[in-house]
Amino acid sequence: MADHGRRVLLLSNSTQAGHDYLEHAAAPIQEHFPAGGRIAFVPYALHDWDRYTAKAAAGLGALGYKVTGVHTGDPATVVAEADGVFVGGGNTFRLATGVHRTGLADVLRERVADGLPYMGASAGTVLAGPSIRTTNDMPIVQPPTFTALGLIGFHINPHFLSGAVVPDFMGETREQRLAEYLEENETPVVGLPEGSWITAHGTTVTAGGAHDAVLFARGAEPGPLPVGSDLSALETAPHVGVAGDAGC
């Protein structure tokens, strides 16, 4: 569970149709990070770390921030010298492998508990939850553990789409996949559509962005979480952190 001094911004996506990288979330980003701040970027979710860092630097640079990739030096030192951290999207299993093998997972938990602003997008948003079990990604690598950072007390499913992707689609819908998750685990999941985000400031957790989120909880039908909803109760409900999520 996250510390009460936390500042966490979790985007469903970093790239929105019709917008430059991170442009659609410019307002919450500028509210989240200090003006002109130094941002440590975690690029482990993609293969080409330098290219990915350059993309993040361009997007955040347009908002007035200076970006340094954690891979360009000692990751813990880069984070220690930063005014905020951004964990980019890509493959969640590759991201989890990188943060655990470098020791950055513990560093991020400690720094965010001390008040360092954390921003995630897509895989970086999944990583902020108790585990990575509700990601959409293929397990292209084997991380040491599915345990994530635990900056928030519930799971997020980013890029959430309701129903069949195309007519006559016979594969599992996102609702079916999350229902399967809840057959084996107790901690609730928030389906977060593109263009939306979740902010956690201290004990206050709020749904924001362009589209309503969806709550998936064991024993209940999926229900809407309108923009502006207070999600704080999801972190203190009895089902959070029970045996069904052992290892998370």
TrEMBL record:
UniProt KW keywords: Dipeptidase, Hydrolase, Protease, Serine protease
Top EC group: hydrolase
Write the Enzyme Commission number(s) for this entry.
Answer: 3.4.13.21
Keyword Hydrolase carried by entry: yes
SUPFAM superfamilies, alphabetically? Answer: Class I glutamine amidotransferase-like
Gene Ontology molecular function: any one: dipeptidase activity
Q: Which InterPro entries does this entry report, sorted A to Z? A: Class_I_gatase-like, Peptidase_S51
User: What family does the entry list?
Assistant: Belongs to the peptidase S51 family.
NCBIfam families, per database record = PRK05282.1 (NF003642)
Please state what the protein is called.
Answer: Dipeptidase PepE
Q: What is the organism of origin for this protein?
A: Marinactinospora rubrisoli
